[in-house]
Amino acid sequence: MERATPIRYLKTVGEKRSALFEKLGISTVGDLVSFYPRRYVNKGDIKKVADTENGELCSLIMRIDTKSKTAISRNGLNYITLLASDDTGSVSVTFFNQQWLEKSLVQGAKYRFYGKMVYSMFAKTMQSPEIEAVIEGKPLRAIFPIYPLTKGFAQRNIYNAINQITPYIKSIKDPVPAEVIEKYSLMNKAEAVEQIHLPENMEKLELARRRLAFEELLTFQLGIQNMRAKIKKENAIAMPLKGTNAGKFLSSLPFALTAAQERVIKEIYDDMEKSQPMIRLVQGDVGSGKTVVAAAAIYLAIRNGCQAAMMAPTEILARQHFETFSKLFEKFEIKIEYLTGSVTAANKKKLREQLENGEIDLIIGTHALIQQSVRFSKLGLIVADEQHRFGVSQRAMLADKSGEYSPHVLVMSATPIPRTLSLIMYGDLDLSVIDELPPGRQIIETYAVDDSYRNRVYNFIKNQVEAGRQAYIICPLVEDNEDNNLKSAEQHGADLAAMLPTLKIAVLHGKLSGRKKDEIMNKFSNGEIDVLVSTTVVEVGVDVPNATVMVVENAERFGLSQLHQLRGRVGRGKEKSYCVLIYEKESEKAKQRLNIMSSTNDGFEIARVDLEIRGPGELIGERQHGEIRFKIADIADMDMVNATKEEAEKICTEGLFGNEKYAELADEVNLMFRINNSENIFS
Ligand code: ADP
Ligand code: MG
């Protein structure tokens, strides 16, 4: 048996059940090895009957005193009933539809029962508990893994399969170099895999988890470092500043750049002047002016005879960038187009042709559209705006778009996160920070209120609209859902229209067609709509300076960084702006958390608190990095993230690929980064 052995060769699996395993993503023995449990139950903590509580999930060791014959219940189920006891009391145990127990259970023998204790009127009872015989000299396993399963699957199907591969598990070679294992006191791989599936006790389980997480992070770090090295070896078009009149472009802007913007533009220009590809992340708080920084980079690329592509996360944002750039470049003879789902097929075809023959200088669109079947004549720069998931690995997939030369890449993000986290999210990008807001930015007055204030808030909106302003109301859901009272955009829009009949109200959400979204957004931009009731599709980037009120319903449902993004949609013009966060009345904790929003406007500070309260999952989307999902690593463990980065750097200097010493580790890296991509991206 080896890693690549198909799972169907296992005796307890076979052809039929292997389809179920496939559904869980398990087709080989290796897949099963890294199919980690979601959680564990501890059946080793044995209670006495007298010490149990009603409703408690517990383990009891009891002797079977009496055992009934199989009977049929009123609703047609087979059942048997036992009376079982320890020295403190007895329990009436019923099993439904488990007829074989009638024969196999032995009166007078001891068993471990694991299940929910229910005190009924006349007796303590358990229904269909898990049951195992207590055998002298053979200790019962205490900790049981619970795997994330699909329908038709029982935990025991996995247990059986794992049992069959234990000889293989014991033979797994350790890919992590011995000195690293020693330095960090890691458990060896074979033992860790065994303990994760068949834990002896909690201590060993914890060590196993730590060990496997370490390996996973190390593998990840090695992968991104190798990709970075590979990208840096590619040829890019050097784009000298000289003769481009960039200074003229920058001074044509309707404002003076901040010192931070100037510094970051210089960092970008220094990169782009080189003949190796730029891979740079620009972080800047909401409103710090990232768009003109991108424009400066795009200008340089185009004046050097190249094309540029800008990717936005939503169609709304793509459309808006199109308008912004059209204005910024108005006097500079730059041909700009935009490509999103709402563009007709005929137009798409035309755009593709114009991209391919070089007529278009700048194309703006959503991620998917630019990736799909678009050919450029000479793509020199890719800008990814607010793309949390545009990392080094996505960059690698775009690499051959422009043929012989690789484009420079600029990623822009308003989520100010620690360096270690950005490493996980984006891979190893060079970092520029815009740590200054343009002058004269006013503080957005922010209030967290419970829903008894709702009518007052609506009145306030009405007053603002009458004074010529506009407002956003953000709701967490699209359609009303009966089992909870979360505000839905659709329903809320309708209610509001009834309550405020003089206002022009529109509803915007992700389920509308691209064209419809554009239309609504345009009307809001032009002031034809007063109040936009929306889901978080307006979260990032949207710029309507006349909007002065941001109301967030069920604000307790959002992360602070997300609220900060939403708040950043107002306060973009001259007028004083307000943000009102409405939370459910009962929630005192929500109130405390939301009050942080009133106390600071600093996105970095908010991200720090958010990270502390909610962990990094919210910021980066559950254990996800582009196509890579961490199976076991906890990216909040900054110490481990840093340690693995350091070790990866050492290994890379020695050479990961082609080095006998790291052969197994190189295999792991290939395996992790080859997901959805049959090619080896390192070769
Ligand atoms: P973000 O960093 O959130 O993407 P934007 O690029 O959308 O921010 O900029 C926010 C607003 O600030 C825009 O209206 C933009 O024109 C304006 N702006 C950008 N830079 C400056 C500056 N140096 N001085 C004044 N206003 C600026
Ligand atoms: Mg922006």
Describe the protein's architecture and organization:
The chain has 683 residues and is of the alpha/beta class. It has 4 domains: 1-43 and 156-171, no CATH class; 45-140, Nucleic acid-binding proteins (OB fold (Dihydrolipoamide Acetyltransferase, E2P), Beta Barrel), CATH 2.40.50.140; 246-434, Rossmann fold; 445-600, 3-Layer(aba) Sandwich (Rossmann fold). The protein is 39% helix and 19% strand. It has 24 helices and 25 strands. It has a 7-stranded parallel beta sheet, with helices on both faces. α7 (202-233) crosses α23. The longest helix is centred in the N-terminal third of the chain and has 32 residues, at 202-233. The radius of gyration is 30 Å and the shape is globular. The model is unreliable at 621-627 and 675-683 (pLDDT under 50). The protein binds adenosine-5'-diphosphate (ADP) and magnesium ion.
